[in-house]
Amino acid sequence: MLSTAAIALAGGVAIIVGVLIGAIGIGGVLLVPMLTYALGFGIHVAIATAMFSYLFSGVVGAIEYSRRGSIQWNMGLWLCLGGMPGAYLGALATWQTPGAVLEGIIGLLVFLSGLQALRPQAENTGAENFLSPVFLLVIGVVTGFASSITGTGGPLILVPLLIWLKVPVLTAVGLSQIIQIPIALLATGGNLAFGHIEFGLGLGIAVMLAAGVIVGARVAHHVSRDTLKRFIAFALLLVGAAMLIRIVAGIL
Description:
The protein is mainly α. It has helices at residues 4-24, 31-38, 43-66, 73-96, 99-118, 133-150, 155-164, 169-194, 199-220, 225-251.
């Protein structure tokens, strides 16, 4: 039974994660460490529960970005088609992978994402026109698999990748909102088949995530992208470093 303090902590972190997801896409990576270290859930259940909650944040994020005209649906369709099989395979791999390995992967991913977010990026407003459907399908498969096996939902993988391919930041974040939906749906199906999900906790987190995403989406369309990227970059570096240190300490 979770204490009142633990529930309050989970709700607060979920709102912050939602704001970050809505603002710059990157943020979901903080959810699994919170469920694991603060609430005491096993890494596999934490990943499965987080993936379930992203189904709702994805729907809300897609609505918020769509109504502002910030989603390239022609790109999103191919990304989502690739993301679905990748997410299901990732869910299968999650329950076959030792917890320590998953923690190491997530910690490294968090840290590298922080480094990536710190790097200056030159945008190319026409870059999306050069990404073929086949290439987008491949990106979707990679995003779905990596997101499902780490419990990060999609944006953490997709946003840095699209920015590296010179896609405008706002377009990349908009696409990261919609790809959460098929990835979360297929990953949830896979996790139900191969493991266990804490649905009550997941629904509670989903409500907080959705509220945060609404705020984050509004922020994304009104403030400096560089400021937001620097903020999340430092947060990711701190969390990633803490996770990696914990793993190394456990080994030693």
